[in-house]
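Example 3.
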Amino acid sequence: AQTVTQSQPEMSVQEAETVTLSCTYDTSESDYYLFWYKQPPSRQMILVIRQEAYKQQNATENRFSVNFQKAAKSFSLKISDSQLGDAAMYFCAYYNNDMRFGAGTRLTVKP
Amino acid sequence: GAVVSQHPSRVICKSGTSVKIECRSLDFQATTMFWYRQFPKQSLMLMATSNEGSKATYEQGVEKDKFLINHASLTLSTLTVTSAHPEDSSFYICSVPGQGNQPQHFGDGTRLSIL
């Protein structure tokens, strides 16, 4: 079975600073996808960024980027120039036929 | 626009009541749909995968008789929480297979509160 581990229950960052959220996963598959989702208080699941396992290049989406280390099964999210609107729960997710989520990291952004 | 429609968004009912939650795929036909449960301040846990025209596949530890799933058409899956009790209070989210950038699209969820 696949497992996703987020070891940081809570993180805090100063506005305009950079923060990195950690995620590791375990799988015996070679072909899969990894995601970071943002869940604000409204509970909507908002896709932040996606990474295909077969791609070596790290995905980037504006202020969001990942550090994907396939051999280490690590998939961290870096948020640059943090904004107040980035405050939310962040879930790391693994996809191979269905989506499995980590426990989540609550990000607080201090003005 | 929305890809998934989940209804109702909020349910409050008495203990012992059965509650039905609907999940509709708006953009395309879905032979499978997914049901997740999220306790407060916790992660989304996959409960089951509904399969159009056949039985749902439940994750280990999920009571089949408590959480009845029906996937009668290619656009509709329903989750019925039977004889609900306060411990069934939770946030339930459905998901449908996607295309392009997202392999799954998520509904806005149903907050179920059992008194």
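The two ends of chain A are 41 Å apart (CA to CA). Chain A has a mean pLDDT of 95.
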